[in-house]
Amino acid sequence: MNPDIAISEAESVVMDILWRAHPASADEVIAALAGQQDWQEATIKTLLNRLLNKGAIKADKDGRRYLYSPLLQREQWLSQESDSLLERLFGGRVAPLVAHFSKQRKLSRSDIAELKRLIEGLGNDDAN
Amino acid sequence: MNPDIAISEAESVVMDILWRAHPASADEVIAALAGQQDWQEATIKTLLNRLLNKGAIKADKDGRRYLYSPLLQREQWLSQESDSLLERLFGGRVAPLVAHFSKQRKLSRSDIAELKRLIEGLGNDDAN
DNA sequence: CAACATCGATTACTCGTGTAATCATCGCCA
DNA sequence: TGGCGATGATTACACGAGTAATCGATGTTG
Question: Fewest C-beta in 10 Å: which of A3, A45, B31, B116?
């Protein structure tokens, strides 16, 4: 479908704002980022434009300004990013990844509980 | 300790060779990469040098050439990469990450089995 | 109506990265 | 022993990303 839209790190920060609340004007995005990122307004405008040019967001005219909304879905982006890491680092297998976190003691007690619940709810799916 | 050595994508491909078998001469690295990457020798030499300059590998003189070995450990790099992704995308929690893969049907049957085993070997702090 | 404010678009500049050619050094063979 | 070949070092160059200033259009207001 959507041929993978590549989002840079800085761009993804802007996307995050829009995923949380859209549509949003440039000003609203800038406001939301103040205190979180130390960016000039101009910087954020540039990022919005780059996102626009690569089709990751759309802009609807609202009087003299625009209201921005995401086109790229957060879920899709999550998949792109995490699949790529999974592939590159763990040969595409999830278990080794979890094993890694477990080895690093990155699993909180609630993680473990949640995983238990998750795994148990899976037993009978499809092939491979 | 080691203040995060940043490795680029291409560099990590070279590291992978060295992690698999070290020390290795430039020629051996080049040989190992032939057929896997479509890089000129010069490109690989450059990557080796950049890795050297950033302290990710070391070079021991062996006659007229060098033998390269990793300094940055694979485990450490895996952690850098996966922790950063986990933080950025899933707020640092492992369970949501696994949930994501599960939702995307990225869990193979053997993944599930392995995860089951893994998780079971963990929960022995208190009951349940 | 003219000056001004606002907002997006354009332009700019630096750095890292991917990719590679070329340079310099040094041991080896004829 | 002097040129050759191998090997690492240096240099190159385009492109994306981060960061931002400035321009241009357009709407607002006295």
Answer: A3
Residue A127 has pLDDT above 90, yes or no: no
Arch. (CATH architecture) of B1-90: Orthogonal Bundle (1.10)
pLDDT band at B121 (very low <50, low <70, confident <90, very high): confident
Helical H segments across A1-128, by residue range: 9-20, 26-33, 41-53, 74-90, 94-103, 109-120
Q: Which fold has domain A9-70?
A: Arc Repressor Mutant, subunit A (1.10.10)
CB–CB contact B85 A88 (8 Å): no
Measure B6 CA to C24 C1' (Å). 30
Q: What is the mean pLDDT of chain B?
A: 90
Give pTM, 2 decimals.
0.87
| Interface probe with B: pick from A76, A119, A122, A124, most Cβ of B within 10 Å | A119
Mean pLDDT value across residues A64-83: 94
Please state, in angstroms and rounded to a whole number, the distance separating the CA atoms of residues B34 and B14: 12
